[in-house]
Amino acid sequence: MSNEPLMNPWTLCVAPMMDWTDTHCRYFHRVLSPHARLYTEMVTAAALMRGDRAHLLAHNPEEHPLALQLGGADPDELAQAARHGEQAGYDEINLNVGCPSDRVQSGRFGACLMREPALVADCVRAMREAVNVPVTVKCRIGVDDQDDDADLFAFAACMVDAGVRVLVVHARKAWLQGLSPKQNREVPPLNYARVYRLKREFPQLTVVINGGIDGLPAVREHLLHVDGVMLGRLAYHDPHALARIDAALWAGSAISRDAAMQRMRPYIEARRADGVRLAAIARHLLGLYHGEPGGKAFRRVLSERVHAPDAGWEAVAAALQGVGTFARRTVA
Questions:
Q1: What is the predicted pLDDT for the residue at 36?
Q2: Do 110 and 98 touch, CB atoms closer than 8 A?
């Protein structure tokens, strides 16, 4: 592969993260990154069939390109859920075959499905027949005693046969017993080389690597071997890193932290007018000044002020007064 990444729609992605990547988070990430492909939190197919579908599928037009991640193991149910996602305007339907939580396992979906590649293939075929947008899969490099290339390659071969063209691979295996979801993101060792070998074995697949990617140098290195990178905790805890990586990959200029906050002001004011509490939005902003002078004060003041029922932009402005250039001009 050449030393320059070949840009494609999956070159830079932000991972689906439960309790994190809601619509407010995704709007903020789009402010920071014009090019990243964003993903929803996992939504179960059953919830879309029986729950508040409009609420579960709600998103802002600015979030595109945007993928809906689904969880489930029933091909017919997943096909219906995928159809609803496409009708709601999503650009991609992604099937979760990577989540290791007990709750997900009890529903027979998530990472435990890596043991049942034929069932996953049936789900993918049903979803692909139901929609015209890409149907993709997010998986691990293995589960439990699956610990060699052959298991992952056999799974990938089933996906290719089912019509999958994009496979997102978290470069850790999942332990389905004995580790919490948090531990499963940290304890099993990363094995990037296995994902690189997967790409070499299946050159026709768009392979996106996920797991422990901590900055631009790592992104550049991965893109020498695979087609895309998916950022998780880095994009959330140090969100301006997303802006810097986007700018570096597309030879642009990263939006400044201050400019990003000013871009968020009309969004915050509009959502407050809709009755959304500030805390629901501001929790995603806390890491914006990570590592910057005044960053800890920004986080502290914002955390203290956002929970008042009537808190609005003035609470954000108060937090910004101690940060960088905002300390020298009026933001209220």
A1: 98
A2: yes
Residues 124 and 162: beta-carbon distance below 8 Å: yes
One-letter identity of residue 243: A
What is the band of 184 on the pLDDT scale with cuts at 50, 70, 90?
low
Structure tokens at 296: 């800890």
CA distance 321 to 331: 8
Catalytic (active site) residue 99: yes
Structure tokens at 225: 């071997």
Residues 34-71: tens digit of each pLDDT? 999 999 999 999 999 999 999 999 999 999 999 999 99
- Which tokens go with 110? 């998530």
Q: DSSP label at 40?
A: P
Kindly name the residue from 13, 25, 99, 112 that is annotated as catalytic: 99
Identity at 68, one-letter amino acid code: L
- Give residue limits of the domains in the chain: 12-249, 257-328
Was domain 12-249 assigned CATH 3.20.20.70?
Answer: yes
User: 274 with 243: CB under 8 angstroms?
Assistant: no
Integer Cα distance of 210 and 168 in angstroms: 7
CB 240 within 8 A of CB 213: no
pTM: 0.92
State which amino acid sits at residue 83: R
